[in-house]
Amino acid sequence: MKLKALKPRLHNAMFHTHTVSGIVISFALFICFYCGAVALFLDELHQWENPESRIELVEASTVDYDAIIDKISNRIPDFNVTGQFGIVPPKKSNPLVWFYGSTKDEEGTVERFTATIDPNTYEVLSIGKEPKTHMGRTIYELHFFHQIPVIGIYLSGLVAFFFLFAIVTGLLTHWKNIVNRFYSLTVEGKWKQIWTNSHISLGFIALPFQMIYAVTGALLGLSILLLAPSAFLLFDGDTSQVIKAVVPAAAIKYDEDAAFVENDDIGFNSVFQEVNSGYPENEVTYIYANNFGKEDGTITVRVDDHTGISGDGTFVYGYKDGELVGAIEPVTKSYSEGAYNVLIKLHYVTYGGIFLKIIYFILAMITCYIIMSGVMIWRTARDNKKYTDKQRRFHHRVTKVYLAITLSLFPALALIFLANKAVPLDLEDRVFYVNSIFFSGWLVLTIIGLFWNNYRKLNRNYVFLGSLFGLLIPIANGWVTGDWIWKAIADKQHFVYSVDITWLVIGISGLLISRYYLTPRAKVDKPHETKRKVELIPEKPIIREEPQPVLQSISKTE
Q1: Residue 153 and residue 147: Cα distance in Å, rounded?
Q2: Residues 516, 460: contact at Cβ < 8 Å?
Q3: Cα 131–Cα 132–Cα 135 angle in degrees, nearest 5
C-alpha cells in the first residue's frame, strides 16, 4: 500500500530538515528519554535506595501532622513558620513522612531544608538541605538537565520542541511508504537497511507516545517563556492573572505584616480529615501552608486518585476561620484549571498505575533505539564517494562521540545504584559523593569509549560493563542492608526485590547479548568468493582497489 507522496521539492526540504534537527538534538534527546524512563519509577525506587523507609505502612489519616510541625519547630529554632512549608503523607511506596520547610535568620536569609520522620515513633530520621538519599532524584533531574544552572530546564524544553519538529518532518518524509516499511521490518540484510526499516517501523509504533512527550516536554520546559506572551496579550502584562487561570492557589497574595491569630481548631489534621472524608477515593498527596498562623494564612491540600487523567484536585482553606477559599475539584474542574495538571499527568504518568508505567518505559527504550538508529543511518549514508576522506572522518568522529556519550549512560546508571550502597548512609554530604561517583564515572566511561573505533566493539563493551555492574547491584543491596532477594520476598518488600530482580534480569540478558550477538564471529571465506577491500572506519586517506584475484588478502572487520 502506497500513500500519496509529497512533491519532490517539499520532500527534499522535509528530509533535510528532519536529518539536521534530529542529529543536532540526538544525544541530548537520548538522555532525556533514557533518564526519564527510569525516573518514571521514582517512587518505586525509594525503598530500595533508602533502607530506613523499609518499615510498616501507617495509615495516612492516623498520622498527627500538627505534632510533626511542633517536632520540627522544637528541633529547628529558626524554622520559618510563616514561609511556605509542606508535608508529604506516608504512602505504600514511601512509608516515611517528608517535611519541606525553610529557616530564616535575623538578617532575613532564607534556606530550604528537608526532613524525614518515622510516622510510627515520630522520630526525625534526617534533616538538612538534602535528604540522605538522592539517587532517584538525581536521575529525574538529569532528564531535564537540572544540573546545568538556570538554563537547564529551558534547554530540555528546546530539545523537546525540536523533537516535535523532527517527528512532523519525519512523518512527512516517510509518508509515502510508511505502511510498506512498517511491514518490512527485518533483522536480516545490510545494517543500513535494518536501521532504516526499524527506524521507520518502530517510529510509527511509538508515534503517539513521542508526540505526547514532545508536546508536554516543550510546554513544561518552556512554560515561563510561553506564559509571558499570554500575559501581554490577554491580561495587559499581568502574569499573576495567567497563573491564577492555570494554578489558582499560586496566585494568592500574602501580607508579611499580617497579624497573628490564635485558632486551635484549624490545623493540618483538621484540614486533612475534612478533605479525606469528602473525597475518600482520592489520596492526599501533599499538604502545605503559607503565612501559617496569620490572618491571611492558608492551608492547601492536593489530592489524586492515580487512575484518571483528571482525578487530581486542590483545596485551599483559610487559617483564620477554616473556610474554603478556593478549590479545583477532581473531574469537575474547568479547562483552564485542569490543563496544566493534565500536562503533568501525561508527562510523569501519575495515572493508570504501574502497568502503564511499564508500557511507557518500554516505549521510551524503543525511542532511545530510534534515536541511535537515526544516528547510524546518518553515518552510513555519508560513507560514500560523494564525501571526501576528511568529511568521512569527521562524520565518524561525530558518530563515535554521540555513541560514547549515550551508550555509556547504561553502565553509569548501574554505577549510581552501586554508589548508593557503597557510600555509608550516615556520611555527611552523602549525596555529593554519590553524585560525584555517577557523573565522574559517566565521564570516564565516555572518554574510554572514544578510543574504541569500531562501533560494534563500543556497543558490546558498554553492554558488557553495564550488565556486569547490574549483576553486582542485588549483591550490594543484600551485603549492605541484609535484605537479600529471598529475604525481601519473604518479608513482602515488593519494591525492594522488584528492583533487585530487574537488575538481575538486565545483567544476565546483557551478558548473553554481548556474548552471542555483539561479539564478532570469525568468517570463513569460500574459495570462489571475491571481495572488495573496504575500510569501514576511515582514520587515514582511503585507497580504493578494484576486485583482485582469489589470493588477495581480505581485510577483516568486526
Answers
A1: 9
A2: no
A3: 90
Cell numbers standing for residue 65? 501532622
State the distance between the two ends of the chain, measured CA to CA, in whole angstroms. Answer: 37
> What phi, psi does 326 have (nearest 5°)?
-160, 155
Residue 548 β-bridge partners? none
**Cα–Cα dist 214/161, whole Å:** 6
- Give dist(CA 29, CA 245) in Å, integer: 31
Interatomic CA distance for residues 302 and 286, integer angstroms: 5
pLDDT for the residue 546: 43
Those residues whose C-beta lies under 8 Å from the C-beta of residue 351, and which sit 6 or more positions away, are 306, 307, 308, 309, 311, 345
Cell 512523518, located at residue: 171
Residue type, 438: F
Of 177, 138, 238, 139, which is closest to residue 1 (Cα–Cα)? 177
Cα–Cα separations (whole angstroms), residue 418 to 246, 474, 506:
41, 9, 15
Distance, CA of 361 to CA of 343 (rounded, Å)? 18
- Nearest-angstrom CA–CA distance, 556 and 558: 7
Total count of residues recorded for the chain: 558
List the one residue out of 398, 491, 374 whose CA is nearest residue 450: 398
Q: How many CA atoms lie within 13 A of 407 on its CB side?
A: 28
| Cβ atoms 113, 119 nearer than 8 A | no
Confidence (pLDDT) at 230 = 59
pLDDT at position 238 is: 59
Other CB atoms within 10 A of residue 379 CB: 21
Give per-residue pLDDT as tens, 276-315: 998 988 999 999 999 898 888 999 999 998 888 888 889 9
Distance between CA atoms of residues 511 and 210, nearest Å: 30
What pLDDT, on a 0 to 100 scale, did the predictor assign at position 540? 45
Whole-number Å distance between alpha carbons of 42 and 350:
11
Mean pLDDT by 10 residues, the chain (558 residues): 70 85 92 96 93 92 93 89 92 93 82 92 89 91 92 92 91 75 68 80 89 92 69 58 65 81 85 91 93 90 89 89 86 78 90 92 95 90 85 91 95 96 90 95 96 89 95 96 93 93 95 80 45 42 42 35
**Based on the number of CB atoms within 10 Å of its own CB, is 226 exposed (0-12), middle (13-18) or buried (19 or more)?**
middle
pLDDT at 307: 86
Q: What single letter denotes the amino acid at residue 424?
A: P
What stretch of H or E contains 429? none
CA distances from 37 to 50, 164, 272, 437 (A): 20, 18, 33, 21
Report the alpha-carbon distance of residue 451 to residue 358 in Å, rounded.
35
